[in-house]
Write a structure and sequence with these properties.
28% helix; Rossmann fold; 312 residues
Amino acid sequence: MRAATIRDGAIAVQEHPDPEPQAGELLVRVRAAGLNGPDMQQLKGRYPAPPGAPPDIPGLELAGEVVATGRGVLRFEPGDRVMALVAGGGQAELAVVHERAAMPVPDELDWITAGGVPEAFTTAHDALFTQAGLTVGERVLVHGAAGGVGMAAVQLATMAGARVTATVRDEAAREQIAALGINALEPAGFEDHGPFDVILELIGAPNLPGDVAALAERGRICVLGVGAGAKVELNLFALMAKRGRIHGSLLRPRSLEEKAAAARRVERAVLPGFASGDLSVPVTATFPLDKVAEAYERFAAGRKLGKIVLEV
Amino acid sequence: MRAATIRDGAIAVQEHPDPEPQAGELLVRVRAAGLNGPDMQQLKGRYPAPPGAPPDIPGLELAGEVVATGRGVLRFEPGDRVMALVAGGGQAELAVVHERAAMPVPDELDWITAGGVPEAFTTAHDALFTQAGLTVGERVLVHGAAGGVGMAAVQLATMAGARVTATVRDEAAREQIAALGINALEPAGFEDHGPFDVILELIGAPNLPGDVAALAERGRICVLGVGAGAKVELNLFALMAKRGRIHGSLLRPRSLEEKAAAARRVERAVLPGFASGDLSVPVTATFPLDKVAEAYERFAAGRKLGKIVLEV
């Protein structure tokens, strides 16, 4: 099979042996695979693939058809449309996925959009609901709302009856998000628009002092991305006075059982939102697998609204 | 009535009008009242009493007899032994307490020990169980274990089947805590003894980098005290990689309904531990109300094991 392959800090398509499904696994013919921030880190050599994942084939999510199944598979059969979070190896013609990590693709989603669902919607749902316990009527701030996770988060929070504010650096993307009925702000001065019960931090350290200042009593800050910096001076007494919480989270290093539990929650709570029209997957650009290097350049350039997806 | 009174940065006993119980309140003849860290801050002018509390009479906890009740009181009657968290005004001959904030004093506790129960055991129970969700078999680290909250926390965590490590600066106190079967360490180098699922931070900023380093996957750090400093440089990526949480908490500014809910949890989960022998209240020293200034000096001097209590 052919697969996006990282060698010496560059990415290109190369030939690899076909993977074989082991017990409980699906062999999936990948139709689409979204790009994510950790792919960029892996390309730079800063984020090695976890044990068990292909070391040189990036890709944390995929959508495609089941073409074969390992021993003991119960949930899917050949021909089924599935999408999944994987620990790596998604940006390839074939990939193996444990059946417990896979979700059915709703009829409403074509391959491209399905390829952009798992990482963004699992991350956003896990952070907002499983971790931060977001509930109806609460005030949510999403920093960096134009990315895949950010766009999933503003939609899920709105669907949950929360009042959503978003910061977006790019003016054009900000206007598009405002057109969805979201209170979209430029990042500077966001702390004057609080208080917020839940803050999703997708940018990093520069926002943290303002996040604590803008936090409501018993508010929760979920830190999911630190692209703008990881080290911050925190005033613990300010956090105590708010009785606030700071959560750090990463999806990729989680165990299969945790990813499976998250997938079950997404199946139950998120996928019906695509049928009801509450949720959609904004895709900025698609690239064929052969142009993977261009896709990575486009991702790294920023100023996008939603996902960049490889079409395989 | 006579009450400990803060004037111009000094504390002494002065005359005040007797308080009168309003609807739902108890008038309590105070028999004992524990000292706590916030009393020291209030004496220094750094922690004004919250609205509704006597501005110049300190004291966050008390034990005594009900001598009168306001309209609509259902839970207690004159003669009952009660103990309670209060927002201030506990270090006095008389105090008013809302009946929902009051707890019955277990038969096993004399006045002195009862006067040292509410703040320490409510704070420790709330942080370990309500907030951090501590459960059987988890590994707990209590920083500053020799104080009232710390001693309550090591006992409650042990009672819950957790494996408890404590840091204690004073060597004599450290040996006494080790004699209880607790793994008692000097503070330096504590991070080599992890990982810990729950860390109770009663000291402050200097420990935080080590706390994050010593945190287990999905671990929780509860920050309840910052006497050694509040400002810390935090590495958010380290917190993400552990999928850890930092909780800040204060008991005093909570609403009556939250204090009442915490009191019900303490009645149910903590008070039976005094009858079973799992819990005790170590008291370092007692002082009569007239010697309140000496009691404060003793508290500020540190090197104590457990509570300092005023006998009224």
